[in-house]
Amino acid sequence: MSAPNSSYDPVEVTPLHADEVERMRDEALAAIAAAVTLDDLAQVRIDHVGDRSPIALANREIGALPPQARKEAGQRVGQARGAINQALAAQSAEVEAAAEEQALVTEAVDVTLPWDVAPVGARHPVTTLSEHIADVFVSMGWEIAEGPEVEAEWLNFDALNLGPDHPARTMQDTFWVTPEKAAMVLRTHTSPVQARTMLTRKPPIYIACPGRVFRTDELDATHSPVFHQVEGLAIDEGLSMAHLKGTLDHFAQAIYGDGMTTRFRPSYFPFTEPSAEMDLLCYVCHNEPDAVADCRTCKGEGWVEWGGCGVVNPRVLIACGVDPERYSGFAFGIGIDRTITSRYDIADLRDLFDGDIRFTEPFGVEL
Amino acid sequence: MKVPVTWLREYVDLPEDLSTVDLAGRLTEFDLKLEEIASSGISGPLVVGRVLSLVKEEQKNGKTINWCRVDVGAHNDASVPDAPGDDVPSRGIICGAHNFVEGDLVVVSLPGTVLPALAHVIPGGEISARKTYGHVSDGMICSSAELDLPGDASGIIVLEPGSAEPGDDAIALLGLGEEVLDLEVNPDRAYALSLRGVARDAAIATGAPFHDPADLEAVTVATDGPGAYRVEVQDPTACPVFAALTVTGIDPTRTTPAWLAQRIELAGMRSISLAVDVTNYVMLELGFPIHGYDRSLLKGPLVVRRATPGEQLTTLDGTTRTLTESDTLVTDDRGPVGLGGIMGGEEVEMTPSTTDVVVEAAVWSAPMIARTARTQKLSSEAAKRNERGVDPTLPARAVRRVADLLVEHGGGTLEDGLTLIGEAPVLPDVTLHADLPARVTGVDIDTVAAVEALEANGCEVAVDHTWLTVTPPPWRPDLTDPYDIVEEVLRVVGYDQVPSVLPTAPAGRGLTTSQKLRRRVGNVLAGEGLVEVKTFPFAGEADWDRMGLPADDVRRRQVMLENPLSAEDPGMTTTLLSGLLRSLVLNIGRGHSHVHITETGRVFLPQAGEAEAPIYGVDRRPSDDELAALSAALPDQPFHVGVVMSGERVRSGWAGKGRPVQWADAIAIVRHLAAVLHVDLEVRQAQQAPWHPGRCAAFVLDGAVIGHAGELHPRVLKAYGLPARVVAAEVDLDAMIEASPQIGPRPDFSTFPVAKEDLALVVDLTVAAGDLEAALAGSGPLVESARLFDAYVGEQVPEGKKSLAFALRLRAPDRTLTDDDIKAAREAAVAAAHEATGATLRH
Q1: Residue A227: what are its φ and ψ, rounded to 5°?
Q2: What ipTM was estimated for this complex?
Q3: Cβ–Cβ of A266/B30 closer than 8 Å?
Q4: In the predicted model, what is the mean pLDDT of residues A58-84?
Q5: Is B710 left (phi over 0), alpha (psi -120 to 50) or beta?
Q6: What's domain B46-173's architecture?
Q7: Of B67, B116, B71, B135, whose CA–CA distance to B96 is shortest?
Q8: What is chain A's percent helix, strand, coil content, to nearest 5?
Q9: Residues of A in contact with B368 (CB under 8 A)
């Protein structure tokens, strides 16, 4: 603080002269207007607003004025300071906005740069298709049953009307567990799960059994010793082949979309009688007259082979403790791997099982 | 079953205009599924030619070729003038073979003929006129190989003189235009392993008249006449009917007529000699296997009996077989001369020089044939038919049919006397309710329709009110049950008649807990960046050795297979790592550096002792105890989860250096699974192959170790040829799911302010951080969590020690903590840490 003004002469206080205040204001305003960076503004703030700025120093002199002069000087200085502060605020806002704008421009990035630092997982289509099929049947009130893969011979064969001397046994090229007298096999189908269910639950039974099965086929483009099936079994009063067809038609529509249907051809399985092969309406050409001839999926047939089915042989019911006089049922099975190779046009079945991550990756986590 | 169409048409008057494709379609709808329609593929002008002249011309290369003029009748082409003999209508053809002379009838493929057998030599196998050896060869004289025919391929085909005229179509003459249906015959339709059976079904399917080839004239030779060969059947169960006829004086120079040889070749059998061919022909025609013995080699009467254990027989295929008492033999004075109904013995085999033949046609027990064929691993054409069941009324007619053909084509004499032992077993009637076909199929089938359908199939049907009594025809031993009858009815009515009716299942319970949790685990693993693979569950010693499993490691005990596909994989795997590591090797070999794979599947853990699964009868449900015994015999087959990771867990890239996978990543995945399953899994330091002994965690659940994770042992990686620092995890998923609570923990947290306290503790290097963490976390009710944020070993701490720094979060459920509270909690934590691990506060 400067020394008290001893003269008490207002005219003596030069900084408070009107033209002086005006000059300080104008200098400040010019400096503010000239400030285009945040650094400029900081300097302006020191030079023209801060404690050591001319206007601040002038303000301090006001107290030394005689009371009658204080008001006028105070007003003058106050107005000047107001104008400066206002201008500074406005300029600050503008400069800050420009600086921020500049910063955003500077910080811009190429968002097309890859960000692949975290590995992306995927689930095998055999798993996800099995789950999808399970969901279809669960939605119909069915349940999903499972069983062991190393299975008792009795359950894999005998209980299913495939006695030891049945010629159909040799049709299912079976892996036998050592020693042979152990009477165990790698299950050749998921049908033993059906037998297990009938043996342990009372009808009505409506179950689907997805699972891994085994046959002694050498691995090549179209055969695999390890493959996957889903089988279905319904045991209830009054079930007929018509209910089998209704179930399969619904299944086909749930998996392949509206308008799908199936057809039966006679066939033979020891565990069903009558037995049928089922064909699925070709899901590519739908057997439409103008499309079927050139269809690669069904090779012009209009239908693709889908699996086997039939009415449960009463001999199986008896072996599994179900009264064939009261109950009847139907069963069916389809190949999961073949459904995948045919739907996704995969030429080589081996791709499903050699574990190359590029096979699974495109399928993501859901089919 | 391969069925030449012209042969088939001999027994069924199919409409001329019924195409083979349509016929095959009808048979497919009738359960004789078409595999393919085979034909020779030969087309174009393949004609008969007469060699008018041939001039031998020696070539510079030392070969001699024949420059021939060949008369090909209407196909002669005078516009290609070339000496010699171009004044006579003919064609000039070069031929390199020398087994023919002027005047011979030969087979000529004229330009434009397509011979598939030559497709590998000339484009499309199409013959064209070409300049060779200085002449234009205007066609080719064919050998049997060039026409894909059996026979001597060293020379060209020379036809019997007078058998054809020049210019005749050789495709028809040689049967090369024949179409052959290849039908898949299911095991219940043994009758369709014959022309007779297929023709009958074709007749039913098309409504065309059927002529039964078994409708032969009554056998005129007397039973047990003087020429009847002596036969004794000691086991009529094994052989209910045995018939034999003898033909003598067959001219061994006679060959099989071309048409007959062609038919059996088209049907997929090899033409061998007249006598053998005739027996095969009649088998194909009637579906009844026939065996011929060279009578001059037989010693004494034929006897049918069971083998004595250890008895030996060398069969026609040259295999010496050791027999058991379940095998049935035909013997003579020396011993076995045939495995009844399956294959004859080598010693009495018919040869091309055989003149006297004993023809045998017998009915054998189908299950016994099946058993012998299975145990002897011998599936002959005879066994295939006999094990499924033949028409037992045929033996006398079958031997007569063979004898007649041998007399006709071999010039033999039929000996007077038929041997006929036993009577054809009669098939039991099947009784069913008349509405059963409708009930089972859902098709509106009334009694009239059912009876009609069954009679069309050869059944006799008696209707008694609402019951049908069905007598199956003798060629249908498969029709034993009411449902078999239903199938026969539906086959005629049409499978396409079955309506579509969706059944209503009772309300279900949805997926089981285990199924739901396995799906949850699958999604968590995918979320962890793991790619699911499916590998084969086979493994063997080489896997265990590479994995460095100790000799006594329990995982070396496998469920072994009798017939594995490869010696490398003799049994079922005990760990998912065997498949995952092979898959990792494959992926790295295919150029993927950063591989994160997982598999969820069963492993197979054998029982402690030798387990045998019982075989029960099928006439009733086994008791609960019996079922329990069945299950108890099976190996334990829990679902495991396996994980293998290599390369970078966080990928390097433009944004900076990433992070390689490390032991902790594998453990973290298992911890994550435990968290989502709400399972309290304890992590312990462990030493377990194939992991790095210092970087392996064991997971303990309720006191039992259920898995391991960490970095793999460097020696294991070396054995597999894998890069360094591969990490892996495997846990028993079933055990974790079993322990997963139905309801997860309830949320429990305080809204009062948190107090944070850091503690740096010095412990021995051997102290597990997990133990210290557990001690801190359990040191008092105010401790909300204790999180390790720094681990240090170095100059700042004494030798043999390490510093572990934890951030404690303290909070009370009901108040803001005071300084005194915090101080007390901190001291309690240090004290608990000291008690548990000897930790001291670092200063």
Answers
A1: -150, -175
A2: 0.85
A3: yes
A4: 85
A5: left
A6: Beta Barrel (2.40)
A7: B67
A8: 45, 20, 35
A9: 165
The token pair at A327 is: 């109950």
Q: How close does chain B come to A49, measured CA to CA in Å?
A: 43
The separation between CA B757 and the C-alpha centre of its own chain, rounded to angstroms, equals: 68
Q: Is the Cβ pair B187, A114 closer than 8 Å?
A: no
Residue limits of CATH 3.30.930.10 in chain B: 513-610+625-739
Residue B83's pLDDT is: 46
**What whole-number distance in Å separates Cα of residue A69 and Cα of residue A11?**
10
Query: Tokens 């209830």 correspond to what residue?
Result: A236
pTM of the model: 0.83
A240-291 pLDDT tens trace = 999 999 999 999 999 999 999 999 999 999 999 999 999 999 998 999 988 8
Would you tell me which CATH number, out of the four given (1.10.10.60, 3.50.50.60, 3.20.20.70, 3.30.56.10), belongs to the domain B430-497?
3.30.56.10
Kindly report the backbone phi and psi dihedral angles of residue B141, in degrees, each rounded to the nearest multiple of 5, phi listed first. -90, 130
Q: Categorize the per-residue pLDDT at A3 as very low, low, confident or very high, splitting at 50, 70 and 90.
A: low
The CA distance from A1 to A3, in Å, is 7
By C-alpha distance, which of B335, B281, B330 is closest to B305? B330
As annotated, the residues of chain B forming the CATH 3.30.56.10 domain(s) are 2-39+178-206, 430-497
Give the per-residue pLDDT at B671. 97
Give yes or no for residue B655 having a pLDDT over 90. Answer: no
C-alpha radius of gyration, chain B, whole number? 41
> What local confidence, expressed as pLDDT, does residue B79 receive?
56
B562-580: average pLDDT: 96
Contact call for A328 and B439, based on CB within 8 A: yes
- Please give the backbone phi and psi of residue B117, each rounded to the nearest 5 degrees, phi first: -65, -20
Give the mean model confidence (pLDDT) for residues B709-719. Answer: 97
Which pLDDT does position A133 carry in this prediction? 96
> What are the chain A neighbours of B370 within 8 Å (beta carbons)?
165-167
In chain A, residues with a C-beta closer than 8 Å to the C-beta of B499 are 242, 245-246
Averaged pLDDT score across all residues of chain A: 90
Cβ atoms of B54 and B98 closer than 8 Å: no
- Please tell me if residue B749 touches chain A, with a CB cutoff of 8 Å: no
Q: pLDDT per residue over B794-808, tens digit each?
A: 999 999 999 999 999
B86 vs B69: CA distance, rounded Å: 8
pLDDT computed for residue B137 by the predictor: 86
Query: Do the beta carbons of residue B758 and residue B834 sit within 8 Å?
Result: no
B2-39+178-206 in CATH: which number?
Answer: 3.30.56.10
Domain B513-610+625-739 has CATH 3.30.930.10: yes
Q: Which residue of A has its CA nearest to B603?
A: A149
Nearest chain B alpha carbon to A198: B621
Please report residues of B whose CB lies closer than 8 A to that of A314.
481-483
SS3 label, residue B644: strand
- Between A140, A182, A264, which is nearest B498 by CB? A264
CATH of the domain spanning B231-421 = 3.50.40.10
Domain with CATH 2.40.50.140 in chain B: 46-173
Give the CATH number of domain B755-841.
3.30.70.380
Say what the pLDDT of residue A348 is: 93
**Beta pairing class for B755-764 and B840-841:** antiparallel
Residues 264-323 of A with CB under 8 A from B: 264-268, 273-277, 311, 313-315, 318-321
pLDDT at site A1:
45
Q: Touching check for A178 and chain B: CB below 8 Å?
A: yes
Residues of chain B with CATH 3.30.70.380: 755-841
What chain A residue is nearest to B490 in terms of C-alpha separation?
A274
Report the alpha-carbon angle B639-B641-B643, nearest 5.
160
pLDDT per position as a tens digit, A283-321: 989 999 888 888 888 888 899 999 999 999 999 999 999
